[in-house]
Amino acid sequence: MNRVLHRFRTLPIRARLSLLVAAAVAFAVAAVSVTCWFIVQGKLYDQVDNDLQKLMQGPRQIQQIGDAEAALNSCTTNPTNGTGFNFRNNYSQVVTDSGKVCVFDGSTGTIKVTQADKNVIEKADSDRLYFRTGADEDGNAVRVVTRYLGPTTTGTGEAGPNVGIIAAVPLKGTQSTLNELALILLLVSGVGVLGAGAAGLAVARAGLRPVDKLTEAVEHVARTEDLSVRIPVEEDSEDEVARLSRSFNSMASSLANSRELQQQLIADAGHELRTPLTSLRTNIELLTRSEETGRPIPEADRKALLASVKAQMTELAALIGDLQELSRSEGQRGERVQVVSLEDTVESALRRARLRGPELTIDADLQPWYVRAEPAALERAVVNILDNAVKFSPEGGTIEVQLDHHGVLTVRDHGPGIPEDELPHVFDRFWRSPSARALPGSGLGLSIVARTMEQAGGTVMLARADGGGTVATVRLPGAPTLPPETS
User: Which pLDDT does position 434 carry in this prediction?
Assistant: First the structure.
């Protein structure tokens, strides 16, 4: 059985559907055919029983049979005496409760008496007829009816045996009809099963045609890595195949966008890395040439070169760190998401910002707020926002940081602000304002902020502040108190 199931599972879906449809139709046709055969059999047997009942209860037959003793005497005296019992062309005989048989004149043959017939006669119920299927002495099938006639007496006046009469009709014609019906039903069932198999195959082919297209598309993508393939889907179709096709199209579109973003990231990263690497190579070549030629570089210039190398290395390290942050997948983050105090995160970021801008005044007003996020990523995003404020604030300027009781974090500086035409691009990767190209940075800080806030279910927005400067607004879903399960 397990081997058959395994073999079935290895068949193509089209073949399995065809077999299942054929099997279902075969079961239904078989059930209908068997039910029909038994119904017809019952009807035919009822008709035979009605004929037997008329034969046993008709006025002419009752008058001819007379009472039990007359019937028994007629048979025992001379079974062929021509007493007029009209059962010709049928089976008829008198039977005692001991099983003694007396066949009527003109009976077709002798019926085999069973214990059930004897029990009928012994019970002495003359108001009932008892039907059964039996056989004659030659083994031919007959339909039998038994009727109790009554008791008899002996010549001395003592009680004699109970007597009943048994009549029967041959079932040859009935069985022939049932056999022909069975053959017809068998042929019809066979044709139905074959037709169902063919119809199932046709339906499977038609139903699985979109799946075939989907399979071809997937194989084409696997073979050529061409993510531009799309499967046509009817707009009003909502079946499983249509949903699968839409899911494939959506997946292919997402993969194409991901590949495009990946290629763009690689291209942008290569472009951004080229500048510090070129500068590093130039500075290192100058130092190497000085050593090789024995012509020392003036101490002031040497210190400037080393400072430049150190700055370029720092910039490269920051750029590589930002790229690693952007390359991390959602799954890598999900395992470290937890309930975080945004107030504590901002406090930690403020300590780092004050070290980077010791000449600036940073005013903070923070209210408790708890969010679900990755702690390290959230702190990095807040640090990036504060770094921008520190970078563009004038010397001796003020930065205002506020976290209200609704979970809205605002960071406002008093620098030159961002031009209106540059605001739509501030969260793009590697985008830097033309006025900030000379300042350190990779152009990835705000991209990391936007991605972190999106993954935490929040938003971030930059806008020009009234009176000059820039205001960054962060909104994160959460609560002002720690959830009970984490407290």
Answer: 52
